[in-house]
Design goal:
The chain is an alpha+beta fold. The protein is built from eight helices and 15 strands. The protein has helices at 17-23, 51-58, 61-71, 77-101, 103-115, 130-136, 180-191, 239-248; strands at 9-13, 25-27, 43-45, 118-124, 143-147, 160-162, 164-166, 171-173, 193-195, 203-209, 215-216, 220-222, 228-233, 258-264, 271-276. It has a five-stranded mixed beta sheet with strand order 1-5-13-14-15, with helices on both faces. A hairpin with a 3-residue loop joins strand 11 (215-216) and strand 12. Helix 2 runs antiparallel to helix 4. The protein starts with 8 loop residues before the first strand and ends with a strand.
């Protein structure tokens, strides 16, 4: 996983960016809602799908206890253990066949399964990208909001992940023993990988379980105004929109927020960003 010791966090927004400032919350997305069909579509590594590997895991005590509870709840532990030892080979064979049969299903449903428990929102590391302004900020008519990466919840590891751009898709390795830390680590790695064509975005992802207390309705991340550092208006941003956001930033708690405006450079394919006193 790519940790974020020091990054910039900018969010390109269309007209709905106003809602972030007004309501003090960021809308989160389920992974299955992304527009890229390659998101969370890992390659399945079945090299560890071996009989000996499964047998070794099934010999762990907790698997025996689960089996005993389901099959022989009334037998004493010693007697049940003897039966279990004799059954391990067949249990491992059955388990291996079950996993192998689900290999393709695991790949294609990984994004759906992940969407049951995790939410994501995206940031980038610059506020002057011509492509990002055009694609995500209403054709330069929106805004870019800068957030403070040194404040919670962005400091909670491993929630903030720098996206890695690669040719080869991520690899999924089945966690036979159900170790939650291993599964979480693998998920964060897969969820922060994208194809090389997206590299211009310089994306940073905030990935979080959907059950934490600062998430409303399993959809909105509630934020403190101190997380917002600045707002940059696009070169085509309507004056009415700038005035409305300027008013919102005059509310208590937003006094520290700086305002910037983008303008077209007179000679280059570039934007000039300059600070302004009022929207």
């Amino acid at each position: 996983m790519s940790k974020c010791p020091s990054v910039k966090l900018y969010k390109y927004c269309d007209k709905f960016g106003l809602n972030i400032i007004r309501d003090k919350e960021i809308r989160l997305s389920k992974p299955m809602e992304f527009n890229d069909p390659f998101e969370l579509l890992p390659i399945i590594d079945d090299s560890e799908f071996t009989l000996e590997k499964v047998k070794t895991i099934l010999k762990k005590e907790r698997f025996f206890l689960d089996w005993k509870k389901a099959k022989y709840p009334d037998k004493d532990e010693k007697e049940a253990s003897e039966i279990y030892v004799q059954s391990v080979d067949q249990l491992a064979t059955d388990r291996l066949e079950e996993i192998a049969a689900k290999k393709e299903s695991i790949q294609w449903t990984y994004v759906e399964t992940s969407s049951l428990g995790f939410l994501i929102t995206s940031f980038v590391q610059c506020n002057d990208s011509l492509l990002m302004w055009a694609h995500y900020a209403d054709k330069h008519g929106g805004i870019v909001i800068e957030f403070d990466p040194t404040q919670q919840p962005f400091t909670i590891e491993p929630c903030l992940q720098v996206v890695k751009y690669r040719q080869e898709r991520s690899v999924y390795r089945h966690v036979f023993d159900g170790d939650e830390k291993k599964m979480a680590s693998q998920f964060f790695s897969i969820a922060s990988d994208k194809g090389e064509d997206w590299a211009y975005e310089k994306e940073v992802r905030f990935i979080t379980p959907n059950y934490v207390s600062n998430i409303r309705d399993k959809r909105f991340l509630m934020i403190d105004p101190k997380l917002i550092l600045s707002v940059t208006f696009g070169c085509r941003c309507p004056i009415e929109y700038r005035i409305e956001i300027g008013k919102l930033l005059k509310r208590p708690g937003f006094e520290h927020v700086k305002m910037f405006a983008a303008s077209i450079n007179p000679t280059k394919y570039a934007l000039d960003i300059y600070e302004i006193a009022d929207g």
